[in-house]
Amino acid sequence: MESKNPVFSRQTNGRQQAWGTPTPEQLRGMYDAPSYAPPAQRAMTIDDVVVRGFITLGTLVVSAAVAWALNLGVAAMAIGAIVGLVLALIVSFKQSTNPALILGYSVAYGVAVGVASHIYNDLYSGVVFQAVVGTALAFGAMLTVYALRIVRVTPKFTKFVVAAGLGLMGLVLVNWVASFFIADGIGIRSGGLMAYGFSIAAILVGCFFLLLDFDSIEQGVRAGAPEKYSWLMAFGLTVTLVWIYLEILRFLSYFTSND
């Protein structure tokens, strides 16, 4: 059998020939050559995403539970939301796979979600549990829809979902600015038909983003993306689930008595 190491043998015209005495250049090459090949980077799997997803979402839930139990207040909610948003933007625009940044987002935004949930539950008893159940059902429904290929994630569908998401965020920004001059802003967060319609649209777009997340995970696994990208996939799922949860929470509050 032919040796693969050129130091020991080479093949010329199909015949095996022994090397002679190595030259100084050959000796230098042998000395400088690495003694081992660097290990190949492991490819990402679905299990990797599931584990990172549990860690990322679990960290957010624990952080939210602590903020709820300690009743940290509106100031902590504002700080957590701002820090979480900044970290989310860094991860999103840099496509960072740094676990510290991603888990930092989970902790910071978990504080904001925990305080907000506590406030809602004080005003509308039981609404938080209903929102959690609704979010779980939405996740299960979208996973089923994706697995059965009831809705296919095409480039046109992706452009529509991204455009719809940007449009919703634009309306939220306009409403916030308008609230400084007009009571209730443009009315998309104050109850009534316009608010109902906006919340329903936001929940649906959040569900569509879940389909994009599932497709990104599948494509990444199929393409053999490095294992570290499972952190980025888990981050995307967590952001989308938080979005859906908060929108369901607000939507349910419109129909829940605060007596």
- Spatial arrangement of strands, main beta sheet: 1-2
pLDDT < 50 stretches: 1-20
Distance between the termini: 86 Å
Number of helices: 8
The overall pLDDT average reads 84
Strand composition percent: under 5%
Shape: globular
- How many structural domains can be distinguished in the coordinates? 1
Order of helix and strand elements from N to C terminus: EEHHHHHHHH
Helix content range:
55-70%
**Main beta sheet: strand number and arrangement?**
2 strands, antiparallel
Radius of gyration, in angstroms, nearest whole number: 27 Å
The structure class reads mainly alpha
Care to count the β-strands?
2
SSE blueprint and pairings:
Layout: E1 9-12, E2 15-18, H1 24-32, H2 46-70, H3 74-94, H4 99-123, H5 127-147, H6 155-178, H7 193-223, H8 229-253
Antiparallel strand pairs: 1-2
Helix pairs in contact: 2-4, 2-8, 3-4, 4-8, 5-7, 5-8, 6-7, 7-8
